[in-house]
């Protein structure tokens, strides 16, 4: 009865982040746009029914309070199942950089474990379990491009956008999320003037409308912002330097390639920081443009010691296709077109 699955757990970037005010529950009210990217951790999962539950993980980094185990416990408790479940985690997503690796790992377990166990949990129930594990977790249950509100747990899909190539630059700096929020100075009473609040909401709407219209994160980035950047760059001047150098290289490559300046003007110009940091990203019109920038970064000593990683934006259709492929042997037969649109994937073992 041993069932196995090898899972790719994708990272995310925030294409836009606005922080409005501190909520009564201690979290902050957000407006953000999440985007899955192809950078991925690998999780090997083994499931076997047992009289008593046993959860184990082989993790070279020995991550404390690993969300993988917490997610597995949540699934087993919700389905009233006992089993031996073993995980082997290979980390490729840099930790502590705002790329959502831990949240993605948790969502991967929420999606895959019910399939291996032959249980059915609806998307709304999975999202509720995910929200208890972390604010970003519900987004990774569907992937693609999505607006997130509330504390980031309430997500709404946006139209599919171009699968543009990107570079992720990880400096290895760890930006603590709590202090980053506190440094913004948002209070429970608001922390923003009515004019500033209105400006941020209008700016966010402008970015979302542009993204939905041009279907290109690179081009729409002229309207984007990340409220954390001024604060975090002030705390970590080296990140500001890296961001400036990266933007200069991107603009130079676009000029060399003869590209028009869409997405290279005001705003973040196709370069941004994800979440509260510290990972930076750059969006490109082509792989050739990306390769030019890679060569520039390799020659610049400022980037010595940084991880510069290639990836692509992954749309919702591609994300869900990936999931069906990696769970294929455990899914029911596809009998009609509707079967391939059912989400989350349904186990062939479910009764």
Structure characterization notes:
The protein is α+β, with helices and mostly antiparallel strands and 351 residues long. It has a single domain (3-341), classed as Ribosomal Protein S5, domain 2. Helices cover 36% and strands 24% of the residues. It has helices at residues 67-78, 101-117, 123-133, 177-184, 194-214, 217-220, 228-235, 237-256, 287-299, 316-326; strands spanning 3-22, 28-49, 54-59, 83-90, 145-149, 154-157, 165-170, 271-273, 280-283, 307-312. The strands form 2 sheets. Strands 1, 2, 3, 4, 5 and 6 form a 6-stranded mixed β-sheet that branches. The chain is globular. It starts with a strand and ends in a 25-residue tail after the last helix. The model is unreliable at 261-266 (pLDDT under 50).
Give the SSE map.
Layout: E1 3-22, E2 28-49, E3 54-59, H1 67-78, E4 83-90, H2 101-117, H3 123-133, E5 145-149, E6 154-157, E7 165-170, H4 177-184, H5 194-214, H6 217-220, H7 228-235, H8 237-256, E8 271-273, E9 280-283, H9 287-299, E10 307-312, H10 316-326
Parallel strand pairs: 3-4
Antiparallel strand pairs: 1-2, 2-4, 2-5, 5-6, 7-9, 7-10, 8-9
Helix pairs in contact: 1-2, 2-3, 7-8, 8-9
Approximate shape: globular
* Helix/strand class: alpha+beta
Number of continuous helical runs: 10
Q: Please, what is the average pLDDT?
A: 92
CATH class: Alpha Beta
Helix content: 25-40%
Low-confidence stretches: 261-266
The fraction of residues assigned to DSSP E strands is 15-25%
Helix and strand element order: EEEHEHHEEEHHHHHEEHEH
* Biggest sheet overview: 6 strands, mixed
CATH architecture: 2-Layer Sandwich
CATH topology: Ribosomal Protein S5, domain 2
Distance between the termini: 16 Å
Radius of gyration: 21 Å
The number of domains: 1
Number of strand elements = 10
């Amino acid at each position: 009865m041993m069932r196995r699955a090898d899972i790719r757990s994708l990272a995310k970037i925030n294409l836009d982040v606005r922080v409005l005010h501190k909520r009564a529950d201690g979290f902050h009210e957000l407006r953000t746009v999440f985007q899955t990217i192809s950078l991925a951790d690998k999780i090997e999962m083994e499931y076997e029914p047992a009289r008593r539950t046993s959860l184990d993980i082989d993790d070279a980094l020995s991550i404390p309070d690993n969300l993988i185990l917490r997610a597995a416990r949540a699934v087993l408790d919700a389905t009233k199942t006992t089993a031996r479940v073993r995980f082997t985690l290979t980390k490729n997503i840099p930790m502590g950089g705002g790329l959502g690796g831990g949240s993605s790992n948790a969502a991967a377990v929420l999606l895959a474990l019910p399939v291996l166990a032959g249980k059915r949990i609806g998307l709304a129930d999975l999202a509720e379990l995910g929200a208890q594990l972390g604010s970003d977790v519900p987004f990774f249950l569907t992937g693609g491009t999505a607006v997130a509100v509330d504390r980031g747990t309430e997500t709404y899909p946006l139209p599919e956008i171009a699968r543009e190539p990107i570079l992720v630059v990880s400096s290895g700096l760890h930006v603590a999320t709590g202090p980053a929020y506190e440094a913004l100075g948002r209070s429970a009473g608001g922390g923003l003037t009515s004019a500033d609040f209105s400006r941020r909401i209008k700016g966010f709407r402008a970015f979302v409308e542009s993204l939905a219209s041009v279907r290109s994160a690179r081009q729409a980035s002229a309207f984007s912002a990340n409220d954390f950047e001024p604060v975090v760059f002030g705390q970590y001047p080296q990140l500001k330097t890296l961001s400036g150098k990266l933007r200069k290289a991107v603009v130079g490559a676009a000029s060399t390639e003869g590209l028009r300046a869409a997405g290279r003007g005001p705003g973040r110009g196709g370069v941004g920081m994800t979440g509260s940091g510290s990972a930076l990203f750059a969006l490109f019109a082509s792989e050739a443009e990306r390769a030019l920038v890679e060569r520039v970064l390799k020659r610049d000593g400022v980037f010595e010691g940084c991880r510069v990683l290639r990836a692509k934006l992954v749309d919702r259709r591609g994300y869900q296709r990936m999931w069906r492929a990696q769970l294929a042997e455990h899914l029911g037969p596809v009998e009609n077109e509707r079967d391939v649109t059912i989400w989350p994937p349904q186990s062939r073992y479910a009764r």
